[in-house]
């Protein structure tokens, strides 16, 4: 075969290989990420249409920012951290790439001890870490009627877990900017209304994007 023709074929083959590699890389980068949101009635969007709840609003905001993410709503009204721990395996059936843990509010409402909550959240975080699933821990605050000491111990659980696990993205208060505002909550003053759910999603978005960046670069991502 003449040298010129052989060189041209080799160049074409090399170019085709580069093209395939580029297509493969683009496909890997462009695949849809699955984000699990393990929570209680706040996550479940109590009193709201499904499209108005936090998972749907978070998904919509991420898509507006060009991120192909499906947010898996694993919220169960009334769930405590013990309930979330018990159903973690079931919640992982969709094989999420990342997870948000948003539990604890019902532990406080039922007067369960912060020690119990710590044990359950630790087990949940351990279970996710064992599967190399990047995680965001959303904190919660105890109602003031339970006393200052209980409130300090309750908040310390989230702070301590976040400090001990630098790999976990920490969002200190799930209802930041929403709690206590009658205009952003339903009549029960506990659950966000549609506007409140939107603000919750908007405020969490930077932390969630940090989580997703970690998921995209993780061994399981």
Here the CATH topology equals Rossmann fold
| Broad CATH class | Alpha Beta
Write down how many β-strands occur, each being a DSSP E stretch of 2 or more residues.
5
What is the arithmetic mean of pLDDT?
89
* Integer tally of domains: 1
Instruction: Order the strands across the largest sheet as they lie in space.
Output: 2-1-3-4-5
H/I helix tally: 9
Strand content: 5-15%
Principal-axes shape call: globular
Structural class of the secondary structure composition? Answer: alpha/beta
Low-confidence stretches: 11-28
Helical content class: 40-55%
Sheet with the most strands? 5 strands, parallel
CATH superfamily label:
SGNH hydrolase
Rg calc: 22 Å
Strand and helix order = HEHHEHHEHHEHEH
Report how far apart the termini are.
Answer: 46 Å
User: What CATH architecture label applies?
Assistant: 3-Layer(aba) Sandwich
Provide structural commentary:
- There is one protein chain.
- By secondary structure, this protein is α/β, with parallel strands linked by helices.
- 52% of the residues lie in helices and 12% in strands.
- It has 9 helices and 5 strands.
- It has a 5-stranded parallel beta sheet with strand order 2-1-3-4-5, sandwiched between helices.
- It is globular.
- Pfam families: Lipase_GDSL_2.
- This is Arylesterase.
- Residues 38-199 form the SGNH hydrolase-type esterase domain.
